[in-house]
Input
Amino acid sequence: MRSRIMVRLSLILLVAFSVGCSKKPNDAQITNDIQQKVAADPDTKDSSITVDSKDGKVTIQGKVPTDAARTKVEQIAKTEPGVSDLDNETSVQPPMAMAPVAAAETQPAPPPPAPEPPPPPPPLVLKAGTPLTVKTGQALSSKDSQTGQTFLATLAQPVSVNGRPALPAGATISGTVVAAKTKGKIKGEGQLDLALTSVTVGSHTYPIQTQVLSSTVKGKGKRTAATTGGGAAGGALIGGIAGGGKGAGIGALVGAGAGFVGGALTGNKQIEIPAESALTFTLTQSLTIKR
Output
């Protein structure tokens, strides 16, 4: 009877021991539970750790952001069922110390600087003494024109500087009647003086200064004009050129077969310059053309 009781008690203890051993957590479960709890806890979620468990002895390595986080990781591991011993080898490294390294690894390289634009071309300078031949856009005369009157013309010939175009043919020219005086029938001198004041190239208008072209005619048909005409050298030079007087002259555009197109002085007529006449002026000051 006693032997039977002892056998039964032994079987009960063996079953209880087996059940107790089967409920004891294994190392893989311990490792997984600690890692999940550390990742879920707000004080330790920013930690970067590894957990290793062998026969219930847990070793924790890695980095934590604060001392408080290191302590909390250790508490989590110690309270885990099945942990028999703990070796906490974590170190404290604040997030600010780790951020520059991560930023340096992920930040793209800055783009190369854009090339500098080429410098603008230097301006062109028309020196004093440069001739400007223009075509008048209207008729001018000593009888009908008024002192101070503005007239328009176009550049008849392009102007270049050292082989580079500066003023194109057709550029708009403005001028002024410096003096206009009608000639009397018996006595009195007729006079017509002209000068250019500006030239327009594209969207730029440049003020200019030129010599005054001066023509005079005296009463009874006497005149100071010298004229030439006809053929390939056709043109008219009025006032100041032959006798070296004031002004530079009023002339027709010269070309093959051009003929006589300038203003003429005959008898007692007034000084007259028809529209489309070609007049040559000379710059008295240099002109700078921007490009």
